[in-house]
Amino acid sequence: MAVELQKTSVVVIGLGAVGGVAVLPLVNAGIKVVGLEAGSWLTTRDFAPDELRNNIRDWPQSVSKAKQEIPTVRPDENSVATQGSGHPMMNAVGGTSLHYWAQSWRLSPWDFQMVSETTRRYGVERIPKDSTVEDWPISYTDLEPYYELVEYAIGVSGYAGNVKGKLNKLGSKFEAVRARDYPMPGLRGSGFTDMMSEAAKSLGWHPFQAPAAINSEVYGQRPGCFYHGFCDRGGCHVSAKGSTAVTTIPEAVKTGLLTVTTHARVLKIENDANGRATGVTYIKGGQTFFQPADVVLLASHTYENTRLLLLSKSEEFPNGLANNAGQVGRHYFSHHQGAPVFALFPKNLNNWYGLPAQGVAIDEWADDNFDHSDLDFIGGGNLWVHTDRKPIAAAKMNTFGKAPTWGSRWKAFIMENADRSNVSYIQKTTLPYDTNYLDLDPDVKDSIGLPVIRITARYRENELKIAAFTQDRMEEWYRAAGATDIVRAGLGSTMGTSTHAYGGTRMGDNSANNVTNRFGFAHEVTNLGILGASVMGTSGARNPTLTAQALAWRTIDHLIAHWDSIVT
Amino acid sequence: MSQKYISNLGNEDEVVSQSRRNLIKQAACVGASVAGVGANSVVNIASAEQVTAPVVEKISVREAFETLTAKESEVLDAIVSRILPSDENGPGAHEARVVHFIDKVLAGPQANLRETYASAVEALDMYCHATKSNSFQNLSADEQDYILNAMQTGSIFSGISGSFFSLIRNHTIEGAFSDPYYGGNRDFIGWDMLGYPGVRMGSTPEDVRMGADLSPSRQSAYDMPPYTKDPAREVSTSVGGGEHGS
User: Fold this and answer.
1) pLDDT digit string, tens, across residues A547-566
2) Which region among A10-24, A58-72, B33-47, B120-134 has the lowest average model confidence (pLDDT)?
3) Structural domain boundaries, residue A250
4) Which residue of B has its CA nearest to A259?
5) Containing structural domain, residue B141
6) Who among A222, A239, A411 is closest to B84 (CB)?
7) CA gap B125, B140 in Å, rounded
8) CA dihedral A212, A214, A215, A221 (to 10 degrees)
9) Does B111 touch chain A if contact means CB atoms closer than 8 Å?
10) Residue A86 backbone phi and psi in degrees, to 5
11) pTM of the full predicted structure?
12) Domain count, chain A
């Protein structure tokens, strides 16, 4: 029997990167919020520089809810879905924003209007036939003010390429106009980044340090980055990384209007006979609770947002909440961020104390920044090389065909080359397709007997052609910097579990093929807001977090402005 | 085996025993039981050089095996010593005490792999006795390498050999190159091998220039005061969460 708690105005499911941002404008508007978080609070003392714990053992000190509900994956309906060994997200107050790379990009205006822009420039036949891609219901201009609010709330360092028409060569020459510069300059460079920048310039490209939610100098109460090199899947030991756990959430807690409930495992979003959300049922410490609320905000990651809706079946929604149109789980895609290029250099690079967000970006081959008239794909990739080297990863390095994978010759190889190789990171335009989707796995259950998410998805020609094209550009760049050996990874096939997971609750004006409206509220459940990359219909060539956070803030702004009509 | 390494070990002053062999370059294997703390201390003397200059090292009573049997530890030590050998380039997996790392892994965070190890070691032992009439750890380096190659490609005792090789290779790397807190990377052997200057709280702009000469920090993350998790310590930071809410 569920214990019914006192009603709150808003209940937020998940206090991670997006839920953690959303609570701040809510409490600042005087709204009472309960935040339900599956994990617990972690502090800087939990963030030891420990590669084994962070990168191999997947955070044993974090509550393991996500690890108990790892999605199954299959490339298509004719294949058997199998469950992997790890889940990319973590449970804690701050969620994955604790251990993410913190790259905090704005999308390009083109990403919002891919269909109409491609049609205008190249003709409608250039849109891949089986893609379900649409223009977003909003433009970059609609989101621009919210990008700025988030950049200042969590602290983003970087160089803006274009502030109100004033250009800055330290930023991207392809960037859209923005109203305000970043609150801090970009992260510092290193010997390696200088070398790669010079090589890019020799090719006529425009290298720049990408934006990151990592302080490059003191920001408020938090120090600048110490550059100790354990950002990748590591929490920040000095709180220089702008996780919501050290920025927006504590600020919201201070108002007294946010109650944080940790170790809350949400089972279901409840609804009434009118099809309105009434609150959330969750388990904590073996006891079931019901938290009634005027508004429910679903702010987990893409897999769990989709799963909770599909699990929340009722008389009014027999196929899951907000799913009478059958769109929950559709338009899913994992970002194509694999297919890297490996390079070997003839000298030590000294990357031992680098961060993944500290590096060199190239936008010449991203989005629609280059002419696609004579190419057979649309979109492109952002080329990124970064510092970041740790010993276990170094020992597991690609051997470039120069050594076996064990024994004395291998040992000699890694001794010589541990600090001489680099791996690129190329994020590519990725599209939704008709037969790529999420649903509940019919067989595999989590630790409490609820079905896990099943991913049925694979990359298509457009993604693979971008991958091959950007690998060519990447090799050119590494060669220009003096690399002696290059190895390319395969171009990719199945869309596996990813931190960059999009769709499932896509945002769009047409309720027949989208779950939420242009403000992130469900078409079918008007007091249910959905936050996160699950509402995004295109990926762009950049990390999704800042965009998901800006969209969340915009959803809250809409809620505050239309409170009466939304709650009644 | 570098002279430097031997002299380092010579300075150890705890319970001292003759070590198990560190590397076997040649076939002459002699087994001899040694009474005392090291229950698994079968000394395999690989060469005349080792007979005349036995390597001594400490075997600390605090490093008892938690789950591995003595026999398993010998076979595993022989395997990891071929994956990451001691050779003219310095010490390897044996000196880094990779088997102790594996023991702790199997007793704790990856106890689910305990049976995989047990059955793989048993299958390897049966294979070696059937084909070579000897245990794996007593074979020559060339014979061991031949068998490990066959394991890697999955061409012997099919079913587990290929995945087991991949598993123990990963554990060898993790044991040799992870924080010494976990039982391997003893004396920072692994980090020194790669030229990794070690964990530290931060780096300066000069530290990340190419050619910067960084002296190794030679500390475990858990030597650093913030991470000891000593309950008596006060939380020193004013930001970073704290105990809000329920």
Assistant:
1) 999 999 999 999 999 999 99
2) B33-47
3) 1-77+87-98+105-155+243-333+501-568
4) B245
5) 3-199
6) A411
7) 15
8) 140
9) no
10) -140, 160
11) 0.90
12) 1
